[in-house]
Amino acid sequence: MPFLETDFFQRDVLTVARELVGVELVWNGCSGIIVETEAYAVEHDPACHTASRPSAREFVRSKPPGAAYVYFNYGMYWLFNLLVKDGERDGLILIRALEPRKGLESMQSRRNREKARDLCSGPGKLAQALAIDGTHHGLPMVGKGRKAGCGLKSSVLPAHEIVSDIRVGISQAVDFPWRFLVRGNPHVSVPHGKVKVPALPPKAIRQPKE
Fold first, then answer.
1. How crowded is the C-beta side of 147, counted as CA atoms within 13 Å?
2. CA 21 to CA 205: how far, in whole Å?
3. What is the 3-state secondary structure (H, E, C) of 29-77?
4. Residue 120: CA atoms inside 13 Å, Cβ hemisphere, count?
5. Which residues partner with 78 through β-bridges?
6. Looking at residues 149-170, what average pLDDT do you find?
7. Rounded CA gap, 97 and 180, in Å?
8. Would you say the C-alpha torsion 91, 146, 120, 74 has a positive or negative sign?
9. What totals of helices (H) and strands (E) does the chain contain, helices first?
C-alpha cells in the first residue's frame, strides 16, 4: 500500500480523523492499524491545546500538514497526534489506539505485556509500545522530510464500521462526538458508548459549531 501524502491532511479535521481509521501507522520496524482517533479543532474547541497553549498555536502556524504533535500528558505518558491544516478546519488528531501488526516482540518488551490487545489499546500505551517520545515532536509524517521507516499507509482493512462517539478524559466540550473508532474492535481504548462523562458545570458542555 502507498504512503499517504500531504494533501490527505489538508482537509477538514473531522474528515481526516474518520478516514485515518483503518490506516496503517508505520514506525521504525513496528506497525499497527489505527482503530481509534480523536479530533480537536483549532477554533471553537475549548478542549484543544490551541485554546490555552500559545506553543500549540505556534505549532499549527509553523508546521506542515501531517506533522507529529507529541506531548507529555499528566507527567506520565507521551501522546502522539497529527496536524491537520489548510482545509475547512485546522486541528490536531490524537491517535488513540492501534491494532498491532508488525514488530510485536519489540512492543511486548517495551510494554512488558504479552497479549496483543494490551499493547496499543490507548494513546499512552501505543506511544510506549512504539517508543514515541518528545524527540519526535514536529516530525513530518508525510511529504518532504518524512523519515524513512515512518509514515502512514493507505487503509489495509476490509470494509468495517466506523462509528463516532464523545471524546475521552476531557473536562471541556465533553459532548462533541469527535472520537472515531471501529465498533467492536478489541484494541480500542474505550468501547463505543462506554465513555464516562464526569459531572460538570453547564459551561463545559458546548455544542460543536457546524
1. 15
2. 26
3. CEEEEEEEEEEEECCCCCCCHHHCCHHHHHHHHHCCCCEEEEEEECCCE
4. 30
5. 72
6. 87
7. 10
8. negative
9. 4, 8
In a domain, 117, yes or no: yes
Query: Do the domain assignments include residue 200?
Result: yes
Overall pTM > 0.90 = yes
In the chain, which residue ranges form alpha helices assigned H by DSSP?
A: 13-20, 54-62, 104-111, 123-130
Q: Amino acid identity of 20?
A: L
- pLDDT (tens digit, 9 = 90+) per residue, 7-57? 999 999 999 999 999 999 999 999 999 999 999 999 999 999 999 999 999
The answer as to whether 28 is a domain residue is yes
In a domain, 1, yes or no: no
Name which of 78, 126, 124 is nearest 100 in CA terms. 126
pLDDT of 156 above 80? no
Task: Report how many domains make up the chain.
Answer: 1
CA dihedral over 129, 112, 167, 165, signed as positive or negative = positive
For residue 108, give the CATH number of its domain. Answer: 3.10.300.10
Q: Taken in order 151, 73, 93, 199, is the CA torsion positive or negative?
A: positive
Instruction: Please give the Cα distance from 54 to 79 (Å, whole number).
Output: 18
Q: Which residues contact 41 (CB under 8 A, 6 or more apart)?
A: 13, 14, 48, 89, 90, 91, 178, 208
In eight-state DSSP terms, residue 157 is: S
Domain region containing 118? 6-204
